[in-house]
């Protein structure tokens, strides 16, 4: 079957570690595992980390990349694949597809049957394939972790990215006032079109916010601390620009800030996210859709940082 996979780790030139070609059919890792015919997938920054060797040790190579997929289950139903694998063989305490078990950038992927979440008919395969990693993470950051309420306020840092555009759209759908920063003027315009008030990184906001969505790290964290209201929640799920920011502890205790780490979400949260999208009639922000034969081009686009929203792979093309 066709697949996109890592053959090496190259921190300086991650795309040199990417191979696109034929791989053997997936084999179920347990009796309750099932095979999904993938119709669409999407790329995440996680795939670039894997090509750099972060979280993907050499003894796991070659490894099929990809965390996100939507497709057809063995019973013919339309499903979204929940990408977190639990269990002793998946590494402590759990892993995401493409770390210990082959990922979704292949025509077929095998996962535990409990990882299949019904896809609402109203969502296309390409929209649904955006959700399991970036959108699920953003949803949990805002809801279970950020405890965002309607009428509340949110700052989303580095707003052009997959998680960040998801957070902007979802925060709006949840009834919040949304502020966002991006380094890029064109992306700021597009963020504004999604309903957020867009600023350059480090700008003073009109108000301090209840929740800050942090996936950038060192480049934005000090600003996040300054922008959080008393009792504000700074929710962190990534550190694209470095994971060792300076933290002013006086600000943390004086303003009673909460700094909350989070990763991914639960299958129930993935189902709730899809219900919210259908109910509010909002859809994922898609930067571009590539056919499977163009998957290398898709990686190049993500690696260049020239994206606004999700880079999607349509397996039917
Ligand atoms: N823990 C989890 O479960 C989880 C899940 C999903 C993602 N993540 C992590 O979250 C991060 C974002 O993932 P993604 O898939 O959304 O990535 P992405 O689509 O590649 O977006 C990254 C965004 O970060 C911003 N950025 C990058 N370098 C920056 C810098 N030096 N200064 C300011 N902003 C910078 C950019 O925003 P602008 O260009 O708009 O400034 C860019 O659009 C990654 O580190 C990923 O590993 C974690």
TrEMBL record:
Annotated ranges, domain Enoyl reductase (ER): 13-313
GO molecular-function term, one example from the UniProt record: oxidoreductase activity
InterPro entries linked to this entry: ADH-like_N, ER, GroES-like_sf, NAD(P)-bd_dom_sf, Zinc_ADH-like
UniProt superkingdom: Bacteria
Protein name (record): Zn-dependent oxidoreductase
Organism annotation: Virgisporangium aliadipatigenens
